[in-house]
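Lab meeting notes turned into a lecture example. A postdoc, R.K., suggested we walk through two folding results consecutively so the class can see how the record format repeats. The first protein's sequence and structure tokens come next.
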Amino acid sequence: METRHKLYGTLVTLTGASLWGLNAVVSKYLMGRGIDTMWMVNFRMITSGLVLLLFALAKNPHGIFDIWKDRKSVIRLLIISVFAFGLCQPTYYLSIDYSNAGIASAIQQTAPVFVLIYVILKERRGPSAAELGALILVTAGSFLIATHGDFGALAVHPLALLFGLISALMCALYITLPSELIKRYGTFETVGWGLFVGGCVIAPFCRLWNFPTQWDASLILGMAFIILPGAACAFGLFLYGTSIVGPVRGGVYNLFEPVTALLASVLFLGQSFHPAEIGGTAAILAGIAILTVAKEKKTIQQIKKTEG
């Protein structure tokens, strides 16, 4: 029974990660159909934030506004809304716009490396062997994607690389900043408000009022996908699955997102990838997997020392 439960959790987690990958591909399709990137991102943030808040309302009708009753929580939420969401989402989609879903997703996966660098500097120590190996793999993978092995020239649009790295850095803030609020108020409440408030903040810059006039069934379905399955459902499934399989396996399974984005880009959008891009993506994913497992082993050792 335990094995079946773990298998169920694995399938749910992989489904959530895969939906995130497909979300990037559908977004690229919408960009190709003429939907303005910044308008699409802004609309998605506000609507998916509202959907998550509806989930939170159904789960806990009396606690959805609790986060606004504490001054320190409000300040932290506003910081998260502006930086972790308000900058992470637009820069990620701009990276997709200037490259493709697979490359942008792979670059964003470097976010844990920024967290690692911050921890190393904060603790004033050198990296462990596993951490150093992960850093080397991720750095090598990023260079392969950016240069295709020719270190004298960029093989991808420089803005794709720039926006991708900014997105990864902001994603690192998303990994570290909301944890206290999530523990206190809940995941749907924190992320829902973060997306909604962040969307409202950037709305004037994205000209949200310029609603596209040329719509057909495929565009409507595409927008519906990136709001519901690609955002709200993906997030809920991934979190639920991770609660079953644990954070370590959840972190490793999350690497399925760029793999799905790459494969779906080839199958549905007819895009081709240079061997160096595939190799670079594999190196990044391997590095993040090593870093995730090493972090869990370190945590287990610390617990054993404490108990001993």
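The second example is placed directly after the first for contrast:
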Amino acid sequence: MIVQGGKPMGGAVVATHVWMEALHDLGNEVQLFRYIEDNRNILEEYHWVNTVKVYDSRKGFPLLRWPLYRFPKFFDALRTSKPDFVFESIPTWTSYFNGMICHFLGIKHILRLANDNMLDERINWTHSFFDQFFIKKAFLRCDYIMTQNSFQFSKVNLNYKSKKVIKISNPFLINREVLVMKSSNAGYISWVANFRYQKNLQLLYKIAIHLPNEQFMIAGQPLIPTDPESTEYMEKLKTLTNVHFRGNISRDQILEFYKGAKFLLNTSRYEGFSNTFLEAMQTCTPILTTAQVNPDNIISDYKVGLIYKDEEDLRIILEKLSVDNYLDLSRNCKEYIQNNHDHLILGKKLLDFLM
């Protein structure tokens, strides 16, 4: 997101970028670790980001590169750059060892929960036993844990009672110029995600079949390797005349994409707090989602979208929706994001927690 020719993927990338902006705007120095071989130029507007080169991702023997090369290089980079805090957006097995290094050097280690599935049996779908073992140890080792919703907050407090835990919503850089209510319920239904099992392309296909008079614009691309279900339904979606693939849309064009949409459709099996919700609400675009992806019930409680059970239920809901009710949803999007996700307000909240 900060380099020329960059191709950011995933909500954690977007959220981390805004946290960096918030901390910088509040007067903090921000460092970003990067690979030694990464020589892409930093965009002019991000010259305040101090990049620290850590290790060459191409070097080292496969089984020994972490203990003999990468972790020592990470240690040297931290010892030289001397940060007060290290922030990891997505916990991995390496987080435990990163935390040990931070502890040895007297640096506070922050782990951010990126997804609900890391806290229950769903982690078995996405992580090996090896990964799970060290991720749990990483949560025990770190100094602070950031959660995105009440489910994560309660689970972490239950499983890691000694940890300092905060529930804090994803921040957002609010652009007042595009924070404009819809004037009608015209437009297409947008769907934005990387193509993988979690995002449930099967349900997207069923919905597109049930709503033949709606146009669906799909933004995103497959994760490599792609799981069998996503591959199957990606090909099926391509056969539908009301479905259009837009590819990976750049960050400077994503808001224009939402501006042309009347809804953002979410079909995920689970999420933490999807940044696509904030991007859509930035353009006052209401959200269609299931009860499984309704973090802290904000979609229903704040009436910024509609909750559906399945494809047939969604068809009935949309048929009954009046223009006035749609415009109310759009207005609520504007009010909600202004009052709850301002990056400076949440940045101050995070700093107060850390201090």
